[in-house]
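Bench log. Compound arrived from synthesis this morning; before running ITC I wanted a structural hypothesis for how FE3-S4 cluster sits in the protein. Inputs:
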Amino acid sequence: MADVKKLYIKTYGCQMNVYDSERMAEAMGGAGYVTTENAAEADMILLNTCHIREKAAEKVYSELGRFRALKDEKPDLKIGVAGCVAQAEGQEIMRRQPLVDLVVGPQSYHRLPQMEARVQTGEKALATDFPLDDKFDTLRQRPKAKRGPTAFLTVQEGCDKFCAFCVVPYTRGAEVSRPAARVLEEARDLVERGVREITLLGQNVNAYHGAGEGGDWSLARLIWALNDIDGLERIRFTTSHPNDMDDDLIAAHGECAKLMPYLHLPVQSGSDKILKRMNRSHTAESYLRLIERIRAARPDILMSGDFIVGFPEETEEDFQATMDLIEAVNYGYAFSFKYSTRPGTPAAERPQVAEDVKSERLHRLQALITRQQRAAQDAMVGRTVGVLFEKPGRMAGQMVGKSDHLHAVHVTSGDVAAGDLRQVEIVESASNSLAGRLLQG
Ligand code: SAH
Ligand code: SF4
Ligand code: F3S
């Protein structure tokens, strides 16, 4: 096995990057690489990067700097940058950090084996175009390795919405949906390899419109087809845009047995003035009405969201409108961020809010969200929920998994294995997880 090479991949950013890192590992598997968790023993290091906020992008350069010592020790080590920073900055990365041998954007991962061959000859390699060939198709020759109980599956990529703060339409390109048959084929393959829960991914996953039998399929139609796959127990999807929640998708939340009662539906702000400037094309009121309809279809659904505080020209009154919206929705989970200026986006040109004001608002918003999150979790005590077990916990004899509502649940019992979906009675709520007791059957 002398010529087996080792690949270390570090993943930043969203779930789509997690999915992409797996695809890159598979593509490089074809070029003789196996993955390693230890950067020090790698022959190639790939950073799969995120450009969404300034901090995320800057992290890449500090991480790259840390590899200098490794490269000094091992001159043949190759270093590559993939993902959204690669797409946004391209050649500039190699100028700023000459250690980098290879830069590859999210639409070009199928080219990695050829690029690897080039860098082995001492050249540099760059691919950041948006090719017409489907990267998913050329990445399909996957080894039939066993998988864990949960998996991501990208069904849609890119975004045409151009929210005024966001880099995604520039880094991931225009919205593209994969054909339904390809998605179903990949889902069946995952199930054969042990997967019981699939999370469908897309930057705007509910705008899915992949070609299928009888014309374009909606996300609801795709979910119903996945629901028929034996052995697949759970379906989730993320991230959705409020404007693309159609009636069929709302109804599916009430009717489709495998679709889980959890919905991530970012709103960003509760102020109509700010929403307009963000180019979100929904209002606070239309978002609240939408949630009412979703809850009418599935009363126990757990809502989660994303919030940006300190968007340009956000006043205290605008911020209060966001707090009011959060009170009205009552979230089970949320991600919140200080607005980060992204060069090239329209909001970067607007008058900015002071950093200390942003920090103080974020603090207040997170305190409110934490209270709601904790209340939603505490309300599970006494209920019986489905739990898909994933791995042993930190304590001896403990197994942990996720509930239907995506809460982390642990039980202490010798009678459950990773991949088991069991009914569990929740007995206690701790700060970030629930404790449960396995029910028979
Ligand atoms: N497609 C999804 C999410 C995209 S990025 C959507 O439409 O909601 C994930 C989250 O990062 C966004 O929901 C937003 O809350 C946050 N985000 C995006 N750009 C940002 C910026 N410039 N500053 C701070 N947060 C940002
Ligand atoms: Fe970014 Fe989401 Fe807006 Fe698209 S819809 S521009 S991904 S925040
Ligand atoms: Fe980041 Fe790109 Fe995802 S910018 S959030 S890795 S789409």
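What the model suggests: The longest strand covers residues 384-392. The chain has a mean pLDDT of 94.
ITC booked for Thursday regardless.
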